[in-house]
Design goal:
By secondary structure, the protein is of the alpha/beta class. It has two domains: 85 residues, Leucine Dehydrogenase, chain A, domain 1 (Rossmann fold, 3-Layer(aba) Sandwich), CATH 3.40.50.10860; 123 residues, Rossmann fold (3-Layer(aba) Sandwich), CATH 3.40.50. It is built from ten helices and eleven strands. The strands form three sheets. The protein has a six-stranded parallel β-sheet with strand order 1-11-8-7-5-6. The radius of gyration is 19 Å and the shape is globular. The mean pLDDT is 97. The structure holds guanine (GUN). Guanine (GUN) binds next to strand 4 and helix 6.
Length: 281
């Protein structure tokens, strides 16, 4: 079984991006900039944002974090986004989710100009991705996609099952696999026989948020299994895949932690650089 090393893949991607930033700097005499807006004091969000900032600095991006208290008014955030939209030194804008209840998530997402939407959450980017046009691609599915391609460069005709239909992961993951000519089944909580669907798959992407849902006897021999889950349990952090059982069947499997997670942040940096490049044309 191949243990897919997301930490190593992310470090390789960051090294490539660092070189690219250096080239862009010498060509344009400026570097791509990422601005992250963090609202409130949720610990996981703070950790993510700190990691994003650290990684952005490592590859040579200009990075800025704007922090607001939980009580910030929606209007203040929307005005800041408008300001960042027209700031030439800002290539990418990310508002860390989740948001406090009194702030309308969709309003915030749609306030970000699509050309700086490094999350790929704006309806314009969602639509462009599903139509097969150039777009920002949500970072986690993009990271999963790059890991799958490392194991299997030709995905044409493969059967892929995506477990979970979220806008963040399941839906964009489906689009990326479809673009590679996979036959994709998207499954969810109302799917009749999830085990049977998974058993049919050459590729399984589990992004549903249920600890160790995908069991050893759900996985065809030699399937590629990507685990997007990060679930806190009494036994520590586990994924959506039962690692010990599935590792006996799968051809390749991502661990949790150390699989998809590190690739998500590296892909955010990639998206920021891609937004910068498109803005220079
Ligand atoms: N919170 C958890 N994951 C994400 C993500 O991919 N983007 C944003 N903006 N917030 C998140």
């Amino acid at each position: 079984m191949i243990l897919i090393d997301g930490k190593k893949a992310a470090a390789e991607l960051r090294a490539e991006l660092k070189e690219e930033v250096a080239e862009l700097k010498s060509k344009h005499n400026k570097v791509p900039g990422l601005t992250v807006i963090l609202i409130g004091d949720l610990t996981p969000s703070q950790i993510y944002v700190r990691n994003k900032e650290k990684s952005a600095n490592e590859v040579g991006l200009k990075s800025e974090v704007i922090k607001y208290p939980d009580s910030v008014e929606e209007r203040t955030v929307l005005e800041k986004i408008q300001e960042l939209n027209s700031d030439e030194t800002v290539s990418g804008i990310l508002v860390q989710l989740p948001l406090p209840k009194h702030i309308d998530k969709q309003k915030v997402i749609e306030a970000i100009v699509p050309s700086k939407d490094v999350d790929g959450f704006h309806p314009m980017n969602v639509g462009n991705l599903s139509s097969g046009y150039e777009s920002s691609i949500p970072c986690t599915p993009l990271g999963c996609y790059l890991l799958i391609k490392k194991i299997e460069p030709n995905l044409s005709g493969k059967k892929a099952v995506v477990v979970g239909r979220s806008n963040l992961n399941g839906k964009p993951m489906t689009q990326l696999l479809l673009k590679e000519n996979c036959t994709v089944t998207i499954t969810h909580s109302k799917t009749k026989d999830l085990k049977a669907e998974c058993l049919d798959a050459d590729i399984i992407v589990a992004a549903v948020g249920i600890p160790e849902l995908v069991r050893g006897d759900w996985v065809k021999k030699d399937a590629i299994v990507i685990d997007v889950g990060i679930n806190k349990t009494d036994n520590g952090i586990v994924g959506d895949v039962h690692f010990d059982e599935v590792s006996k069947n799968a051809k390749a499997l991502t661990p949790v932690p150390g699989g998809v997670g590190p690739m998500t942040i590296a892909c955010l940096l990639k998206n920021t650089i891609d937004c910068f490049k498109r803005s220079q044309i």
